[in-house]
Amino acid sequence: MCVSTCFWKTKKMMVDNKQVIFKGYIERAPKETDMGIKITKLDLHAPEGSSSFLVKNLYLSCDPYMRGRMRHSFDSYIPPFVPGQAIDGFGVSKVVDSDNPDFKPGDLISGFTGWEEYSLIQKPQQLRKIQPDDDIPLSYHVGLLGMPGLTAYAGFYEVCSPKKGEYVFVSAASGAVGQLVGQLAKLHGCYVVGSAGSGQKVDLLKSKLGFDEAFNYNEEPDLDAALKRCFPQGIDIYFDNVGGLMLDAALVNMRIHGRVAVCGMVSQHGHYDPQGIHNLFSLVRKRITMKGFLQSDYLHLYPQFMEHVVSNYRQGKIVYIEDMNEGLESAPAAFTGLFSGKNVGKQVVCVARE
């Protein structure tokens, strides 16, 4: 029995492994041609003595922060992509072979993985096991219950310190993070307005996501006037996902002791020389607190985040909108679409359905 087992573990099982490859560093908005599809060969066994494990990737997350990893010299919290190698990011995967006692074949996990059909995980990053639940789609573990969800939860409750009855503004409000921020704010008893880039998204904010009001920033020639119309009394909390002109306009419309959570700068990702902010004196005049943050600073909150969000989701008090692309080949288009507003909701790529 031992002989046959050892033989099985040493026998290679080679398969084709389709990958999305990063071609080279850029200083502009990403294009589909900055990535390519490559097929390599992969042994479906985890190397003995490596403590690694092999996964089949099911769902991949497209996130704006990945744009920063396409720059060669980028002072960031995460290393750049390596030209010629597969892109990596958050995903949901299934273990197919393991040399790690903590992970067994059949386990479902969420965490960092490659943009490829199969990945060998050697250094798990922010990796969590998923307990299958018929009521919760697996793909939600890269959205509602993944990095974007924890970003929304920590940013709203920890950075913004909300109070019932306050006035909350959320930019990129139909995106992966913004849609949950708005719903958390409503559950907390706040008045919530969101901005988005199309009439369809504005309708979703008001009809499905429960925002009190919303506007299409592409139809507003004067963002300051738009915010004054929506918030004649001023803004207590601004959850900023875009930076640029919207942040500038929001600052002059903040109330005294307002709070700004700086989550992302998606409007600036296509600029070689990003726009500066002109209204910073509002921080002094109105005693505003403005803070940047990462969800990785708040990983200790994950259990209470899960309890709060899952409970409200089961009760129908939270909904979540996904934009699902099918097939690994669709990943470059799905990712680049983030920067032109093509996605409606959280952008996910389905590689396989188990």
Textual characterization of the structure:
By secondary structure, this protein is α/β, with parallel strands linked by helices. It folds into 2 domains: 2-142 and 321-350, Quinone Oxidoreductase, Chain A, domain 1, CATH 3.90.180.10; 147-297, NAD(P)-binding Rossmann-like Domain (Rossmann fold, 3-Layer(aba) Sandwich). Helices cover 23% and strands 27% of the residues. The protein is built from 9 helices and 15 strands. The protein has helices at residues 2-10, 147-159, 178-187, 199-207, 223-230, 244-252, 281-285, 302-314, 331-337, and strands spanning 14-22, 35-43, 53-61, 88-98, 108-114, 118-121, 128-130, 167-170, 191-196, 213-216, 235-240, 254-262, 289-292, 322-326, 346-350. Strands 3, 4, 5, 6, 7, 14 and 15 form a 7-stranded mixed β-sheet that branches. A 6-stranded parallel β-sheet has the order 10-9-8-11-12-13, sandwiched between helices. It has a two-stranded antiparallel ribbon with strand order 1-2. Helix 7 (281-285) links the parallel strand 12 and strand 13. Helix 2 packs across helix 3 (178-187). The protein is globular. Residues 1-8 have low confidence and may be disordered.
